[in-house]
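Appendix C. Worked example: Aspartate--tRNA(Asp/Asn) ligase
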Amino acid sequence: MEFMTGERETQVSTLREIFEEQPLGKEVAVEGAVHSIRDMGRIVFVTVRTRDGLLQTVFEKEEHPEFSGLKEAMCLRVQGRLRQEARAPRGLEIALEGLEILSAPAAPLPLPIDKWKLNTSLEARLNQRALALRHPRERAIFRIQEGIVRAFRDFLWEQGFTEVHTPKVGARSAEGGANLFRLSYFHKPAVLQQSPQLYKQMLVGVFDRVFETGPVFRAEKHNTKRHLNEYTSLDFEMGYIRSFRDVMEMETGFLRHMMEFLAQEYYQELKLLGVELPSVEQIPAVPFRQAKELVAKKYGRAVRSPQDLEPEEEQLIGEYFKEEYGSDFVFVTHYPSGKRPFYAMEDPEDPTVTLSFDLLFRGLEVTTGGQRIHEYGKLIEKMEARGMTEEGLEEYLDAFRYGMPPHGGLGIGLERMTMQLLGEENIREASLFPRDLSRLKP
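Step 2, the predicted output written as C-alpha cells:
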C-alpha cells in the first residue's frame, strides 16, 4: 500500500526556473515537445516547446548518433548542460547529453507551427484549433487572457468581494427578448442564461459584494467580427453604493491593476505579440446624448438611432476621446430607459435615462453596467409598466421584498477585452473554441 502526501519530487526544471536562475554549466532537464528541427549537417538544433515557452537545444551528430530520427511534435525529456548562446531564444541553450522520447506523432502536422507567423486563414486555424494553439503567438493570446482573469479575481478579492458560481440553466433569463437559447429541462421549458445578473443581485443581499467569471449565451443571429453566441463574462455586483459612479470607479481601479499585473507577469507574451499596454490613469465619462452630439459635430455625421449607439458611432466616440484626451477608454453614461433592462435604475432628475453606462475600449463596447433598482415597490412598478409578469421571477423578487441595499454592477466581455487589448481584428482570435452562427465544433 502507498500513501499520497501531496509532495512530488522531480528533477525536471521549468523554463521560468532556468531563465531566472541561469545555472550555466550545470546539468538541467526539461520536458516538452519538439517545436522545430534545424539540421545544419554536423550540428542539429532542436527547439523544445514547454508550457513556459521555447528553449533551444543542440547536439552534434557524431557524438550522439542515437538522437537521430527526431520528428516534429515528439514529446521528450531532455537533459544537458546550460550555456549562453546569443542567437537562441532569450540567450540560452542546452547542449544535449541525454534524450528520452515519451511519445511520437502518428502523422505530420497539417499546420506550419514552427514558422514565426502562422500564415494560414482564420478558418483553417479554427478548424485545427488544438494544433494552431501550439504556435507561440497563438498561445500567447490566451496566456494574456488568463492574466486578465487573474487580475480581475485578485483585485476584487482585495476589495472584499466573494467569488460565486451561479447556474447557467434557468427558468427565465435576466434580459428576456428573442435572443434566448431555449431547451427542454426534464420536460420543463428552460433557457441558457444570458447573464448571471439576477443571481448576482440576490447574492448582494448575502455577501454585499460578489463576482463571477463564467460563460453566457446569446442566441443573436449576428455574423460579425465582434459577436459570439457563447462568451465569457467577468461580472461583479456591489452593495451599499452611493452612486453608479462607484461601479465605474471600481472598474477603473481594476483596469489599472490589470495593466500593471500584465506588464509584470506577462511581459514575455506582450513582447512576443508587440503589444503596448494603454494608460488607465483616468477614464473620461460622457453622457450618452452628449457623446452622440460630439461625434456628429466633429465628424459631420447625422445623429441616427437616438436610443442606442451604432457600431460606427462607438468607433468615432473612441477616436474622439483618443484625439481630444489621449484616452483609449471612455465611459458613456445615462443610456435611454427603453434600451436598458427592467432592473436598471432611472435617473431621478430625468426618468427617460438610466443610471447606467457602457465602457468603450478603442471604439468597442466591452462593458455594460450601472445602478439597479433596489426597492421592491419600484421594481414591481417598473415591471408592470413594461407589461411583465412575476412568473419565473418569484425568488428574485423575494430578495427585494425582504430588503436589499443600494447596489450596482457590471459585466465585462472577456473576449472583446482581449481582442481590443491585443489589436486583433476578429473576436474569434480571442476565443479558444468559438461558437457562432455556423461553428459548433471543435
